[in-house]
Design brief:
It is a single chain. The strands form five sheets. A seven-stranded mixed sheet has the order 13-14-15-12-11-17-18, with helices on both faces. The protein has a six-stranded mixed sheet with strand order 8-7-6-9-10-20, sandwiched between helices. By secondary structure, it is α/β, with parallel strands linked by helices. Strand 9 (214-218), helix 8 (221-231) and strand 10 (238-241) form a beta-alpha-beta unit. It folds into three domains: 2-242 and 453-463, Aldehyde Dehydrogenase, Chain A, domain 1 (3-Layer(aba) Sandwich); 246-438, Aldehyde Dehydrogenase, Chain A, domain 2 (3-Layer(aba) Sandwich), CATH 3.40.309; 475-518. The protein is built from 17 helices and 21 strands. It has helices at residues 31-50, 53-82, 86-94, 96-112, 149-160, 174-186, 201-208, 221-231, 256-268, 285-300, 321-334, 366-369, 385-393, 408-417, 452-457, 485-496, 500-518, and strands spanning 2-4, 10-15, 22-27, 115-117, 127-134, 137-141, 164-168, 194-196, 214-218, 238-241, 246-250, 278-284, 338-341, 356-359, 376-382, 397-398, 400-404, 422-425, 442-443, 446-447, 460-467.
Length: 523
């Protein structure tokens, strides 16, 4: 919630999603303050990039030590901010950071090193190379569902390459924004290398239109479109990590016990507030009823509560999200779907919503077409895996999916047929924590990839370099053109036929024309 303090400045009023009580107020950065942060990042950029990759990787090791020192405190503060259980904060927010730091510590030099690439034979004597250099100041706008992990991984990826960063955390989770600010300060990063600007939508808009060199945005499709449109005015590159409506395809030969537990965790972890949550469960008809019965038992044994209650699932972090979840369920119910479990706001303080299973879901329902982003498991009966793939692909989103079968060859075949950024066979969610795998979506799920090699290169410009010894006076393709047409035509036909060595003959004859021209003779 945004309010004005006694000095007339706008502030974020942070209320606990667990208790509903006031947690604190955070001053909102206005346009001028955003510009000042970007200017500090711009001034810091030259020294940071000149410090060298070894020094930057050493700084990342200091980040790791700070996280190690404060892990439980960070997890507690993130849990207080979001409402998620402490185990969730450790596993889904903190766990992956050391994995990525170690991955890039070992591989960044190779990924970012200049490299030689092939040069076609017709360009004889030349050599070709690729080099990478940082874009400059990166503006990162992060979401509220995983406010630590989805901020820190793009930050460290940008920093390793030599960029500086201005982070705008979500106004829903300002506490975690302060955790990130403190972490980089304690790790000894120079002023301006990592700037944090707390604020609301206007703050984010000011960052997009400021003097940054790229925007990395994670959030909703609607806001992502606005970010892209605003960035196009300059233009600057934009990376969009947006929503999903992830499909889980359960074949009749799947390990049902594993699939059921995966569906519950993959759809309800962080109260379903995850872009790669399981949001459409396609089950082959011969096992549909058995699966639903098992899923109901699994979901109803889960505990819901705050971080101190050793719960499996916490509250909804952003209260307004409850309206979306409720409207999706009610619209589906009115259209003929059946609620098997849950479907209601829970009694007591805090923003809790009961874990929900809904069956009889059809493709015309909002709960099928739109991102629910809540603790809801929609189950869809299908004839076979072919129908499941067709339904999974016939959608505006394409972020992640999973396939469940005891036949791994079939699982890989189905995975290859799915139109999305990542697929798991007999598992859910975990691929996002593999530092070697790129992450991102297709269609309305976003543009670009991070993690993996792309996680560094997406914040770098690519420079192509071609080197010639410079000993010849001219190239065969240069002026004069007189007398070269027939040889140029022969060389072209030979190249089309893949006769690259043979093409050198006409090129040599063209070169002789150059020599005669250089000697003042007619062709």
């Amino acid at each position: 919630m945004v309010d004005e303090n006694t000095l007339g400045k706008k502030t974020i009023v942070k209320v606990s999603p667990v208790t509903g009580k006031l947690m604190g107020e955070f001053e909102i950065c206005g346009e001028q303050e955003v510009k000042q942060s970007v200017a500090r990042a711009r001034r810091a950029f030259e020294k940071w990039v000149d410090s060298g990759l070894d020094a930057r990787l050493a700084a990342m090791q200091r980040v790791k030590q700070v996280i190690l020192k404060h892990a439980e405190d960070y997890a507690r503060r993130i849990s207080d901010d979001t409402g998620k259980p402490m185990v969730d904060s450790l596993i889904t927010e903190l766990f992956s950071i050391p994995l990525f730091l170690e991955h890039y510590r070992k591989r960044a030099k190779k990924i970012l090193a200049p490299r030689k690439v092939r040069t076609p034979l017709v360009f004889q004597h030349k050599k070709s190379y690729l080099e990478y250099f940082p874009m400059g100041v990166i503006g990162i706008i992060s979401p509220w569902n995983f406010p630590f992990q989805l901020s820190v991984i793009p930050i460290i990826s940008a920093l390793i390459g030599g960029n500086t960063v201005v982070l705008k955390p979500s106004e829903v989770t300002p506490v975690t924004g302060e955790v990130i600010r403190e972490m980089f300060e304690e790790a000894g990063f120079p002023q301006g290398v990592v700037e944090v600007v707390q604020g609301d939508g206007a703050t984010g808009a000011a960052l997009v239109t400021s003097d940054v060199d790229k925007i990395f945005f994670t959030g909703s499709v609607a806001t992502g479109r606005k970010v892209m449109a605003a960035a196009a005015a300059r233009p600057i590159p934009v990376e969009l990590e947006l929503g999903g409506k992830d499909a889980m395809i359960i074949c009749a030969d799947a390990n049902l016990k594993r699939a059921v537990r995966a569906a519950a965790w993959g759809g309800l972890v962080n109260a379903g507030q995850m872009c790669i949550s399981v949001e459409r469960i396609f089950v082959e008809e011969e096992i549909h009823d058995e699966f639903v019965g098992m899923l109901k038992k699994e979901v109803e044994r889960l505990t819901v509560g705050g971080p101190d209650q050793d719960a499996d699932m916490g509250p909804i972090t952003f209260p307004k999200q409850i309206q979306i979840v409720t409207s999706h369920i009610e619209q589906a119910r009115e259209a003929g779907a059946q609620i098997i479990s849950g479907g209601n706001v829970m009694d007591g303080p805090g923003d809790y919503f009961a874990p929900t299973i809904i069956v009889g879901v059809t493709r015309d329902m909002n709960i099928y077409r739109e991102e629910t982003f809540g603790p809801v498991l929609p189950v869809i009966k299908v004839k076979d895996s072919r129908e499941a793939v067709e339904l999974a692909n016939d959608h505006q989103y394409g972020l992640a999916a999973s396939v469940w079968t005891s036949d791994l060859k079939k699982g890989r075949t189905i995975a290859s047929a799915l139109e999305c950024g990542q697929v798991m066979v007999n598992d859910v969610v975990a691929s996002v924590a593999n530092p070697a795998l790129p992450f991102g979506g297709v269609k309305s799920s976003g543009i670009g990839r991070y993690h993996g090699e792309e996680g560094l290169l997406s914040f770098m410009h690519t420079k192509a370099i071609m080197v010639d010894p410079g000993k010849l006076e001219a190239e065969p393709f240069w002026f004069p053109y007189a007398g070269k047409y027939q040889d140029a035509l022969k060389a072209f036909y030979m190249l089309v036929q893949g006769k690259f060595l043979a093409a050198l003959g006409p090129l040599k004859r063209m070169d002789k024309i150059n020599k005669r021209a250089g000697e003042g003779k007619n062709a």
